């Protein structure tokens, strides 16, 4: 998982580098030009961003394992948000929603198998390390402290989202294949998980029992993780466009307009 997540970051950084380089080439940017200065900042910060990203992944999984050892998983504590962080919060929430809409089944079934593997209740699924919120939080954590301009961060987030959408099916397949082979809920399919989540009763209508998941025998495997590459995804409406879609509707040069 760590290697594939780092590959996703690398793709987004390569795309961001190309965008900035193209802008500088087209504008014949020189020292003092906004685009050129942003390009220098990006090149300088990229190695630290890569290191911070890996640290964020390791810290997330390490904290998850530590909480598992104590058999309690704490909810993320609410914190006050500074006004200058609101734009980042909005961007990350939009990307998380976009990823959730497109990969709800992938995330749900992966989290469900994590819970089954570790003997947790399904209620803990939202706190597993590969949810949409954690996938975005890895980058947000990596960017903290680098003090990059907001417009440059927006470009990085945009390309990160594009790389996520392109690479997540492979990531989830790689994570689920060994669990399926080991008999961890091999009979459960993405479509079944989505249908079940959509049919859950609302408040006051009762709830499903929270019995712990069971581990099936390997001989009961009925399908492979290839489902992660073939699951049907509904077309998004205009109101559900991702931040990448919105950003690509205008020129990249607009990112650096004064």
Notes on the protein architecture:
The chain is mainly alpha-helical and 258 residues long. Helices cover 61% and strands 0% of the residues. The protein contains 8 helices and no strands. Helix 1 runs antiparallel to helix 5, helix 3 packs parallel to helix 5 and helix 3 packs across helix 6. About 20% of the residues have low confidence.
How is this fold's topology laid out?
Blueprint: H1 2-27, H2 34-69, H3 86-118, H4 132-143, H5 150-181, H6 190-198, H7 227-230, H8 243-248
Helix pairs in contact: 1-2, 1-5, 2-4, 3-4, 3-5, 3-6
Shape: elongated
Distance between the first and last residues' Cα? 40 Å
Instruction: Compute the CA-based radius of gyration.
Output: 20 Å
> Taking all residues together, what is the mean pLDDT?
76
Oligomer: single chain
Structural class: mainly alpha
Poorly predicted regions are 71-81, 202-225, 232-241, 245-250
The tally of beta strands, per DSSP, is 0
Helix content: 55-70%
Report the biggest beta sheet as strand number plus sense, adding barrel if it closes: none
Q: Count the helices. How many?
A: 8
Can you write the helix and strand succession as a string? HHHHHHHH
Q: Strand portion, in percent?
A: under 5%
List keywords for this structure.
258 residues, 61% helix, 0% strand, mainly alpha
Give a quick summary of the entry.
The longest helix has 36 residues, at 34-69. The protein has helices spanning 2-27, 34-69, 86-118, 132-143, 150-181, 190-198, 227-230, 243-248. 61% of the residues lie in helices and 0% in strands.
């Amino acid at each position: 998982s760590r290697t594939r997540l780092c590959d996703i970051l690398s793709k987004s950084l390569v795309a961001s580098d190309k965008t900035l380089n193209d802008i500088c080439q087209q504008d014949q940017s020189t020292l003092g030009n906004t685009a050129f200065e942003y390009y220098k900042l990006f090149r300088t910060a990229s190695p630290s961003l890569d290191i911070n990203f890996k640290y964020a992944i390791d810290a997330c999984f390490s904290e998850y394992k530590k909480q598992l050892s104590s058999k309690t998983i704490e909810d993320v504590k609410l914190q006050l948000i500074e006004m200058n962080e609101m734009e980042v919060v909005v961007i990350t929430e939009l990307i998380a929603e976009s990823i959730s809409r497109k990969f709800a089944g992938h995330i749900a079934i992966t989290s469900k198998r994590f819970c089954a593997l570790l003997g947790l209740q399904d209620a803990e699924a939202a706190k597993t390390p590969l949810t949409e919120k954690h996938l975005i939080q890895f980058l947000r954590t990596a960017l903290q402290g680098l003090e990059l301009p907001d417009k440059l961060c927006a470009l990085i987030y945009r390309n990160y989202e594009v790389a996520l959408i392109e690479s997540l099916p492979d990531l989830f397949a790689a994570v689920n294949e060994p669990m399926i082979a080991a008999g961890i809920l091999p009979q459960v399919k993405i479509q079944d998980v989505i249908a079940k989540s959509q049919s859950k009763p609302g408040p006051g209508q009762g709830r499903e029992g929270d019995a712990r998941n069971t581990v099936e025998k390997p001989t009961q495997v009925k399908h492979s993780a290839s489902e992660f590459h073939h699951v049907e995804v509904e077309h998004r409406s205009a109101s559900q466009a991702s931040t990448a879609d919105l950003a690509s509707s205008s020129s990249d040069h607009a990112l650096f307009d004064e």
